[in-house]
Amino acid sequence: MSIIAVNGITKTYRQYRRFPGLIGSVRSLFTRQYTEEDAVNNMSFTINEGEAVGYLGPNGAGKSTMIKMMTGILVPTNGDIKVLGVVPHEARKANAQQIGVVFGQRSQLWWDLPVTDSFDLHKYIYKIPDSAFRKNLELCMSLLSIHEFVQKPVRQLSLGQRMRVEIAMALLHEPKILFLDEPTIGLDVMAKDQIRRFLRTVNRERKVTIVLTTHDMKDIEEICPRMLVVNKGSLVYDGSVEDLRAKLGSERKVIIDFRVDPGLLDIPGITLLQDEGIRKTFLVPRGESTVFEHVSRIASQYPVEDASIESLDIESVIRKLYLQLASEEQPISKIG
Amino acid sequence: MSTYFMFTLKAFVNQLAFRSEVWLRLLGNYFAILIQVEIWRAVIGNGGSASTTVEQMITYSILNTLLFALLLNRVSSKVDGSLKSGSIASELIKPLSYPLYLLFDGLGQSLYQFIFTVIPSLILAWILFGMLPPASTIHFIAFLGALLMALILSFLLGYLVSLLAFWFLSHFALSWTLGGLITIFSGSFLPLWFYSPSWAAVAKLLPFQYLGYVPAAIYLGNLNEAELWRTIALGLIWIILLLVVAHWLWGKAVRRLIVQGG
What we know:
By secondary structure, chain A is α/β, with parallel strands linked by helices. Chain A contains eleven helices and 13 strands.
């Protein structure tokens, strides 16, 4: 059953034209010229109950705008959006009760109050029954190890501590959907790991649907089986991480250690990536001959000590996708 | 409702962080009242004129100076801050009515002002300058009602300005204008009975008089019964009118909302 249905959503921002310089700033007062920019352009997708979806794209791709429309803060310019069967901005308060939201770059805690006070206020705002509140709080606090700083004022917390509190808070009212906008931004490896583990548990065991935007591919790999990739406000990929890798990462990286430097090698069909004398790195496309055939052909001609075959990691896959998208746009932007 | 009272409490507790300000505010209020008292002593003289005595004017000045500390005029700068920093996003993802949240948060600040500024200043002013008692019990009850109206109207005016800020992305000019209108038409320094008939007529139609002149004039018993009822009725009409406009504008403003900074 689909829990989020986005159908032909467009969000247009209107930007009033500004003129440079002092005279320009006076001129800006009298002009109503503006440009319109689509932050989100005719976007459609559905998300089912219990899914964990990574929403990614380069900076300025319209990720945050989409999240804000799904949470009911922003009103779409065009199109339909249904979250849990209601239009989020029309039923903002009812929607808010059913969802949890974490903005990585923006705190929802009460800055001057101790962490426990923020939790207590949350209990009042969301009208959480006592027993459920205590149960959820205990679970979140132990899984995210919040106990040690629960009495400190929020402003004294480190970023990693604060983010753990933000995530715990977003789950206290047992939301059906959890939206996270860059939850791991700026965190150290340990904090990231803990948050990822926690989110995976929440998704798998408590069946909370997760939608998260990120720039960290490991977040996607560890939490989200499905990803949506957007660029310039449009959906460019919807599917699993593996499928995208198969689609784009058809090349394999082969590192061969030779016993003696064979000098310059020219093997048709494969590209030399890096040459460090006796260690050479090749890029082998998957084509008529397999990677293994290439390697054994080299091994029959030269003394090979060791060979390792690596598939492209997800980051390289995404980089390739972005580069491909950027090169596709070039001719269009020249005309425009 | 208990949820919103939590915000009142929280705003109150937050203000406690600025306790050291209490003495400065007390001093500031003392000077503000002293200056007005001296002006009225000079203008009216100790004998008093036919219509107004010095004692009445001293009471009028004390009431207005203290009323000013209670009014919810900081709403627009709060909303403005949220809009500029983008933290309005965090406020809107909560299952709360935004205007009610603002109102109760403002009430927390007023409550703080009441306890830590208004009451001590009142006692101080009473001792130093002397104050007339309310004209009658009825007038005192009406005065309390007028205070409530002043709180609501000051909130609604500030809230309207903050909604207009959704279009301009800055509230400064609007708040400045509102401040000017309040200074001129509230009669908080110069009672409306000193205005020329045409200006007094204008001021008595506008909502600003409820933020200064009306509560003080009711306290002093300067309004006869007919005037009293007419004034209260007009105030209620203004409250309803501003509520309707604010509600309509909120619907429009949310559509205009641009959340700054990603």
